[in-house]
Amino acid sequence: QVQLVESGGGLVQAGGSLRLSCAASGRTDSRYAMGWFRQTPGKEREFVAAMAWNGKSGSYVDSVKGRFTISRDNAKNTVYLQMNSLKPEDTAVYYCAASTLYIATRPDDFGSWGQGTQVTVSS
Questions:
Q1: Mean pLDDT, to the nearest integer, of 75-88?
Q2: C-alpha neighbours within 13 Å on the C-beta side of residue 59
Q3: Where are the beta strands (DSSP E) in the chain?
Q4: What CA–CA distance (Å, rounded) separates 58 from 43?
Q5: How far is 118 from 31, CA to CA, in rounded Å?
Q6: Cβ-contact 68, 3 below 8 angstroms
Q7: In degrees rounded to 5, what are phi and psi of residue 89?
């Protein structure tokens, strides 16, 4: 199993940018699809973005297309989420997750999760 630790969250004004990082440790020799999810109080965890283990395929929820970019550096065992043109509705706790599938978008397909990092976008 792989352990995940997110960082990079914080408070930003609408229109600003943040870059989240997710560092993996443990069984990083395995091939993992990586994903980002977000959750606000009282709501289910929402898929944001995912990337295949080899970086050749990606997927985004419609609401972040053109604004967010997922990337990975397998040499550093780190995945990133670059978030631009942030909106107040992007406010949430963001979670990094790992899946043994080639690529995945459903929470149930991810077996490892980080602890989350808070992103707050002020209007």
A1: 96
A2: 14
A3: 2-7, 10-13, 18-26, 33-39, 46-51, 58-60, 68-73, 78-83, 92-99, 112-113, 117-122
A4: 25
A5: 27
A6: no
A7: -70, -5
Distance, in Å, from the CA atom of 25 to the CA atom of 28, rounded to the nearest integer, reads 6
- Across 24-55, b (16+ Cβ under 10 Å) vs e yields beeeeeeebbbbbbbeeeeeebebbbbbbbee
* Lookup: tokens for 93: 């706790």
Q: Which two tokens stand for residue 46?
A: 């929402």
Burial of 96 (0-12, 13-18, 19+ CB in 10 A): buried
Residue 26 binned pLDDT confidence (cut-offs 50, 70, 90):
confident
Range with lowest mean pLDDT among 27-31, 94-98, 119-123: 27-31
Q: Which amino acid is at 102?
A: Y
Cβ pair 28, 93 in contact under 8 A:
no
* Chain CA centroid to CA 7, Å: 11
The per-residue pLDDT for 88 is 98
Query: Quick one: tokens of 87?
Result: 């909106």
Q: What percentage of the chain carries pLDDT values higher than 70?
A: 98
